[in-house]
Write a structure and sequence with these properties.
With about 400 residues, the chain is an alpha/beta fold. It has 19 helices and 14 strands.
């Protein structure tokens, strides 16, 4: 079975290299991995290394509370952070608490053997669901303590199928599973993995910490001008089509809108701006205008969204109508109602939970968006109730990080 997997892995990587000539994101995926071992050259054989792997940006946010604690507790260790996806690496490649940030090599046997031999981690922490066969087999072979953090399992995964005997063998690598919910623990127990703890999701700890930082942005204060403001974060084309229709046809003159698209390609930003009939300004233009006179602000940069959510009266979080819902916990921690697309949210536990608790609403079309946005805007009691529900949900589910750190102390 491993022979077939490795053959398939090499074939896949060959085609990925070809596609990199035509796809900018895939080019980053391929060329970035060429720098992995040069970046790791700063690791010496005498170094004590703690290695954390996150697939992308969302998983990195789950890793951050762990990394921050490890940096304090084990100051004499080096921290290596790896990513699988360019969307995570490109944004966090200069993360100051890590000694090395690089791509995880593609999962071929020789790549992974070289990586593990180079890093020689005292502990491997994998976030949520990174189950690469060669990686896990090499970790087990090298007897490196390995834990899964913020894991979440579903019955449809191969591990739990009748024919899942091979994929189940990957799980033997893990010394402990810290999972998000009781269902994940039950599924693992059912296939005889009892080394599990329901810790919850470390992202709750991460977003709670956001409230302790300075979230003031003077230009947002000026733009908002004490008016009712909708913040739409990490939006995709499918989200933006509905938002633009609402802005153009249903928004009152007293409403303000801040759009922070997932794709900030200049041509896409230009197209978005031109589709809006209200007075609109880009973040890149704010130094030359009187911001309070504009109704729509498009944020054509990255790194500001978390603080911008602090100014929202309602948040629309993108991705639910496209590839998958983005982070709704960041706006939730500020105690505001949340709206998101209906099609691609079911795999996100926090989205399902907040819908059930009536802290969030999902929409599939413009009519639903118009109805929900209007009811939240016009009913202050509803708005406050939804916001309180979101904030209480975040506070109630925090606390995963201390459990995990206590366990790590028993290993190191």
């Amino acid at each position: 079975m491993i022979f077939i997997y490795n053959l398939f892995a090499h074939i896949t990587y060959f085609f990925l290299k070809i596609s990199s000539y035509f796809n900018p994101k895939m080019k980053l995926f391929i060329t970035g991995r060429k720098e992995t071992f040069s970046k790791l050259a700063s690791i010496n054989t005498n170094d004590k290394v703690l290695w954390i792997h996150a697939a992308s940006l969302g998983e990195f946010e789950q890793a951050r509370p762990i990394i921050e604690n490890l940096k304090i507790l084990y100051a004499n260790h080096k921290i290596v952070v790896t990513f699988f996806s360019p969307s995570g690496y490109e944004i966090r490649k200069n993360y100051p608490l890590a000694d090395v940030v690089c791509y995880l090599p593609f999962d071929t046997r020789l790549n992974i053997k070289k990586f593990i031999t180079t890093v020689q981690p005292k502990l491997a922490i994998l976030i949520k669901y990174e189950f690469w066969p060669n990686l896990l087999f090499e970790l087990k072979k090298s007897r490196i303590p390995t834990i899964l953090v913020s894991g979440i399992f579903r019955k449809k995964q191969h591990f739990f199928s009748i024919l899942g005997f091979w994929t189940r063998s990957f799980l033997n690598t893990f010394q402990h599973f810290f999972v998000q919910d009781e269902n994940s623990k039950h599924l693992l127990n059912h296939i005889n993995f009892y080394n599990t703890t329901v810790s919850g999701d470390t992202r709750f700890d991460r977003v709670l910490n956001i409230l302790e930082q300075n979230n003031t942005l003077d230009f947002i204060t000026t733009f908002k001008n004490n008016k009712y403001t909708t913040v739409a974060g990490s939006t995709w084309k499918e989200d933006e089509e509905l938002l633009v229709e609402y802005i153009n046809t249903s928004a009152t003159a007293e409403e303000k809108f801040i759009l922070a698209p997932h794709n900030i390609n200049p041509s896409q930003i230009k197209k978005l701006k031109e589709s809006i009939t209200k007075k609109v300004v880009l973040y890149s233009e704010i130094n030359d205008v009187s911001l309070s006179n504009y109704q729509v602000l498009i944020v054509d940069t990255i790194g500001l969204l978390t603080k911008i959510y602090a100014y929202a009266d309602v948040a629309y979080v993108g991705g639910g109508l496209a590839t998958g819902l983005h982070n709704i916990l960041e706006p939730a921690t500020f105690g505001i109602p949340i709206v998101f697309g209906d099609q691609k949210h079911q795999k996100f536990k926090e989205a399902v939970d907040l819908k059930t608790l009536n802290g969030a609403e999902s929409i599939s079309n413009y009519e639903e968006m118009n109805r929900i946005f209007t009811s939240i805007r016009e009913d202050q009691k509803l708005r406050l109730m939804m916001g309180d529900t979101c904030q209480n949900y975040v506070a109630k589910n925090a606390g995963a990080t201390p459990l995990i750190i206590d366990y790590i102390k028993t290993i190191l």
